[in-house]
Amino acid sequence: MKGKTFLQVTGILMIIGGAISLIASLALGGLTTVLAIMGGEVDGLGALIALAAIAVVLSIIGSVVELVAGIIGVKNCGKPEKAGVCLGWGIAVIVISVISNILTIAGGSDFSVLSLILGLVLPVLYVVGAALNKKSADNA
Predict the structure, then answer these.
(1) What is the pTM of this model?
(2) Rounded to an integer, what distance in angstroms lies between the CA atom of residue 1 and that of residue 94?
């Protein structure tokens, strides 16, 4: 199977990245909660807290999807019949990465080609590994 190593290595890296991101997201969620409790009476802070809460929820969802994709990739890297499932999870991570970049731009930040490319490298390699596994399953 040509894609086994691709899928295994990228899956491990996605597990690590997803876990770190989930921890950071939960910490940011705690900070947002503290701000909401302490600064609820400050004018204009309510909208900022609401935006931060939305960002935290989206970040947690993205982290969990990346973590699950990584786990599924590592678990199924030697099973070409499961390549379609891995492919779907990899595409989900790519979609979330693109949405994240769009929301960053919508939030007023400048578009960064480097950020987009870096955010897509790992999921694209994951999808390549899944596609190679799928191809080997189709040829068998």
Answers:
(1) 0.85
(2) 23
**Confidence class of residue 1 from pLDDT cuts 50, 70 and 90?**
low
Contact 61, 3 (CB under 8 A): no
Is residue 84 within 8 A of residue 106, CB to CB? The reply is no
How far apart, in whole angstroms, are the C-alpha atoms of residue 118 and residue 120? 5
Domains in the chain: boundaries: 4-139
Residue 62 contacts residue 96 (beta carbons within 8 Å): yes
CA distance 44 to 16: 37
Rounded to whole angstroms, how far apart are CA atoms 131 and 122? 14
Long-range contacts of 29-37 (CB under 8 A, 24+ apart): 29/53, 29/56, 29/60, 32/56
Cα–Cα nearest to 126, from 58, 57, 74: 74
